[in-house]
Write a structure and sequence with these properties.
This protein is mainly beta. It is 14% helix and 44% strand. It is built from four helices and 22 strands. Strand 9 and strand 10 form a beta hairpin. This is Serine protease.
């Protein structure tokens, strides 16, 4: 009796091989000092790669799938979202088209990366899909996507393709898990890096500790930068922030989420409890200096 599944496997294999072949020319190897990673052509003259494996010093070079190698410069990098943008002469290579589609839980995904300029591919499964989240370093990621796939360090920065061959994000190594930085995050952050070289962050000039109150959540001020915006507004150590722009505080994380690039220079009303008494101050958000 003929096995009814026999024709399926060659068809799947052929489809996967075609997906990788169509993406191959946009995948590159990134060499920086002693570090190796992967990347992809995002726009003419611009490479997107993972920030974490990119060296802090030394020359950067790009090796293309045709074996050619060219020097690159760092246009900008954001450690909070693990995205870096490099400038390089890409020759005749075409950029990849990113898709804003978020893959379905349990669907197949292909990681296309490079090793010494040679294209690599790995087949995995989307093991977790969630909503927008904040990284441990404070970056806003548009969707939580995890892959069940084996990832080598030098393959970080490679492209993730869904079963239709669409590029849905960049693969990076998280804490004991493989993560996908979705295309929406890449386009948003890389565009700012291309123009400004960095991602500006709002700055209050306080160290905060979450506290539970009888009527909700608060953020206790543990330290105050004397030259920061909070000190200028009259906020003191020991104050408890309970409101932000006439709304109850949702916790320290919600406060930090409000300190994105667009918050810089804006004035907010901050509700405080000081020794049990209510205090209202106006604070102009500053810009966090580069670490």
């Amino acid at each position: 009796m003929t096995d009814p599944t026999a024709p399926i496997l060659p068809a799947i294999s052929s489809a996967l091989a075609d997906m990788v072949a169509r993406t191959k020319s946009a995948i590159v190897s990134v060499h920086s000092h002693r570090s190796r990673a992967s990347g992809f052509i995002w726009k003419p003259g611009l490479i997107v790669t993972a920030d974490e494996p990119l060296a802090d010093e030394g020359d950067v070079s790009i090796r293309f799938s045709d074996g050619s190698e060219r020097p690159a410069s760092i246009a900008g990098r954001d450690h909070t979202t693990d995205i870096a943008v490099l400038r390089v002469d890409i020759g005749n290579s075409a950029p990849v088209a990113l898709s804003s589609i978020v893959p379905d839980l349990g669907s197949l995904a292909v990681v296309v990366a490079a090793e010494q300029g040679v294209t690599t591919a790995a087949l995995g499964m989307v093991s977790l899909v969630g909503s927008r989240w904040r990284s441990m370093r404070g970056g806003e990621i548009d969707a939580r996507i995890e892959l069940d796939v084996r990832l080598r360090r030098r393959h970080e920065g490679g492209l993730v393709l869904n079963a239709s061959g669409e590029a849905v994000g960049m693969v990076v190594q998280g804490v004991r898990r493989v993560l996908v930085i979705p295309s929406a995050t890449i386009d948003r952050i890389a565009a700012r890096l291309e123009t400004h070289g960095r991602i500006a962050r709002g700055y209050l000039g306080v160290g905060l500790q979450p506290v539970e109150l009888d009527d909700g959540l608060g953020a206790m001020v543990m330290s105050v930068d004397r030259a920061g915006p909070a000190a200028a507004a009259g906020i003191r150590q020991g104050d408890i922030i309970v409101g932000w722009n006439n709304e109850k505080l949702g916790g320290v994380r919600s406060l930090l989420r409000s300190l994105g690039p667009d918050s810089i220079g804006s004035v907010v009303d901050v509700a405080i409890r000081r020794a049990g008494e209510p205090v209202q101050v106006s604070l102009r958000i500053g810009e966090r200096a580069d670490p």
